[in-house]
Amino acid sequence: MDAGFDIDGDMIISKTLTRTDVDKHGRMHLPKSQVLSVLTKMKDVTEESLLNGIELEVLDTINNHSYSVILKSRNISKEFVLGTGWSTLKYSLELKEGDNLKLYWDYLNYKFIILNFEYSLIPF
């Protein structure tokens, strides 16, 4: 069955949420290798801009809602997090520990799309 929405698997950040991601700290740690892959398609991103934080849009197409979040590199070891805005997104989607969140980087429109719908990966 064709989902009608083909995406590049290298542009997906997938994370099973941990207790730390959903607690009061207000940030979600992201898988480094997946973020580095997505960064190859982001325009004008530097180490300095990542340390300061980059404001990005996250689109929930099912609920027709958009969120603003900050993608940030926390230190020289390139530990990546979603910071400011993560709590709003987490509460709105009622995310909890153990949930799997998939974000697709739509580099043509410069935003993340929450993959909470059927899609197909582009074959290689």
Automatic annotation (TrEMBL):
Matches recorded under InterPro entries: B3_DNA-bd (IPR003340), B3_domain (IPR051442), DNA-bd_pseudobarrel_sf (IPR015300)
Keyword line: DNA-binding, Nucleus, Transcription, Transcription regulation
Gene Ontology CC, one term: nucleus
SMART domains: B3
Example GO molecular function: DNA binding
Intracellular or extracellular location(s): Nucleus
Pfam families (alphabetical): B3
Domain TF-B3: 13-118
Protein name: TF-B3 domain-containing protein
